[in-house]
């Protein structure tokens, strides 16, 4: 609850969810226009894929280098600055006449568009503890909308007006969101005054000292690795001899997962009512079932395609719902270090996703689609075993880290419950 009232808090959360969608879309729409970039710049399709890699590399760098600043700098100023830089970098990308300038602009786009990892800790501090699950689900729904719609809109707009048009549209959206945030997001002071070098070192220290953070990182890294393995393998499956479809089929299959946007708020409410551990358990079981269903995708034809649709939907629901549960768990560890906690968490998650893509491609090459499904099942089993292992899994999270008095934000009453002594 806030001194400004529930309506303003709700509006701020909705605006942050929209900002998450716009920012995440900047990472994913280049995947849909790679062939257009290749023909427009006169380079090979393989060379054009480096644009996507550059954007993702920048995003990983931004998580590590910039997200910890959410605990040091005023959040409104930080978000507006990053979105403005993103918009300018997108405009620069739209005017690139060669591959290297486009790659440089893409790295800057990825680095600056880390709004979603910053918005999560900010939103968690604006609501009471019992509402953090549903708020996390709302932000995740916004990010999912950006991820799914950006590829569809980017591809369609690129086919119509050329590969530069999606960059111009993304720039306009980023600058518009920056203007909205500067006017509508409450001006809050930073949570802490920690020096920047200490902020960079903090995620490693938190991983070493906080077992609940390590547990959440393991859960999501393994599930996200399986998710990445599937989407790496499914592109090979659909374009291979079993189905003989075009690359656009993968994008159409991804649109099926738009239903996940409706599931994440429900998962958030379940986390608020039942706790993250129970939701994690259900998510592991759902992902395990998805591996079995996906295995039938290798049959081909209508039955196989139906299995791919149902299996990828189950996988996405399980993965995204687990994301909500794990983030609620880590945000309860300390109000003044949420951005640094999220830095450690998201870095581990994306490392897991990178490893999953690598393993998925090799599993498909050696064992076919069945090998990918077995990999998903094995990764899920690792997380489930950790979750059920008695004597290792803690029943309750550690007490929150004590927040300094300076971390109380002017104009907003503290949203978390009283800190317990260690």
Features:
single chain; 422 residues; mainly alpha; 75% helix; disordered C terminus
Summarize the structure in short.
The protein is an all-alpha fold and 422 residues long. Helices cover 75% and strands 0% of the residues. The protein has helices at 6-28, 34-41, 45-65, 75-94, 99-112, 115-124, 132-161, 164-184, 196-209, 211-239, 248-256, 260-274, 276-295, 301-331, 338-367, 369-388.
How large is the radius of gyration?
A: 21 Å
Choose one word for the global shape.
Answer: globular
Order of helices and strands: HHHHHHHHHHHHHHHH
Give the low-confidence spans. Answer: 393-422
Largest sheet: none
Oligomeric state of this protein: single chain
- Number of helical segments with 4 or more residues: 16
Average residue pLDDT:
81
Distance between the termini: 26 Å
Query: What portion of residues is helical?
Result: over 70%
Structural class: mainly alpha
Q: What share of residues are in beta strands? A: under 5%
Please tally the β strands and state the result: 0
Describe the structure.
The structure is a single chain. The protein is mainly α. It contains 16 helices and no strands. The chain has helices spanning 6-28, 34-41, 45-65, 75-94, 99-112, 115-124, 132-161, 164-184, 196-209, 211-239, 248-256, 260-274, 276-295, 301-331, 338-367, 369-388. α1 runs antiparallel to α8 (164-184). Mean pLDDT is 81; it is low at 393-422.
């Amino acid at each position: 609850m806030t001194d400004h009232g529930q309506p303003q808090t709700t509006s701020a959360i909705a605006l942050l969810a929209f900002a998450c969608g716009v920012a995440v879309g900047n990472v994913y729409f280049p995947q849909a226009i790679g062939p257009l970039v290749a023909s427009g710049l006169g380079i090979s399709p393989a060379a054009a894929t480096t644009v996507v890699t550059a954007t993702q590399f920048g995003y990983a760098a931004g998580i590590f280098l910039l997200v910890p600043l959410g605990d040091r700098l005023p959040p409104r100023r930080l978000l507006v600055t990053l979105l403005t830089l993103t918009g300018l970098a997108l405009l620069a990308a739209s005017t690139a006449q060669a591959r290297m300038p486009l790659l440089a602009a893409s790295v800057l786009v990825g680095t600056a568009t880390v709004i979603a990892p910053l918005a999560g800790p900010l939103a968690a501090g604006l609501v009471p503890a019992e509402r953090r699950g549903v708020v996390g689900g709302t932000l995740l729904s916004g990010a999912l909308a950006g991820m799914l719609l950006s590829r569809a809109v980017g591809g369609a707009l690129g086919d119509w007006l050329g590969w530069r048009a999606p960059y111009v549209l993304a720039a306009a959206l980023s600058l518009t969101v920056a203007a909205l945030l500067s006017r509508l997001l409450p001006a809050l002071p930073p949570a802490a005054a920690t020096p920047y070098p200490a902020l960079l070192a903090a995620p490693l220290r938190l991983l070493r000292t906080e077992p609940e953070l390590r547990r959440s990182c393991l859960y999501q890294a393994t599930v996200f690795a399986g998710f990445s393995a599937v989407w790496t393998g499914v592109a090979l499956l659909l374009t291979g001899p079993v189905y003989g479809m075009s690359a656009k089929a993968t994008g159409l299959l991804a649109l099926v997962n738009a239903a996940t946007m409706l599931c994440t708020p429900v998962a958030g409410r379940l986390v608020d009512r039942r706790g993250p551990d129970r939701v994690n358990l259900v998510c592991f079981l759902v992902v395990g079932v998805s591996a079995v269903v996906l295995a039938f995708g290798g049959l081909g034809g209508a039955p196989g395609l139906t299995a791919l649709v149902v299996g990828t939907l189950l996988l996405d629901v399980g993965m995204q719902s687990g994301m909500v549960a794990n983030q609620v768990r880590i945000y309860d560890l300390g109000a003044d270090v949420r951005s640094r906690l999220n830095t450690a968490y998201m870095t581990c998650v994306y490392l897991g996703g990178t490893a999953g893509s690598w393993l998925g491609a090799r599993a498909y090459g050696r064992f076919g689609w069945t090998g990918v499904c077995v990999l998903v099942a094995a990764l899920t089993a690792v997380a489930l075993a950790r979750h059920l292992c008695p004597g290792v899994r803690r029943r309750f999270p550690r007490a929150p880290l004590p927040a300094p008095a300076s971390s109380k934000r002017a104009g907003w009453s503290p949203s978390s419950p009283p800190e317990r002594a260690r």
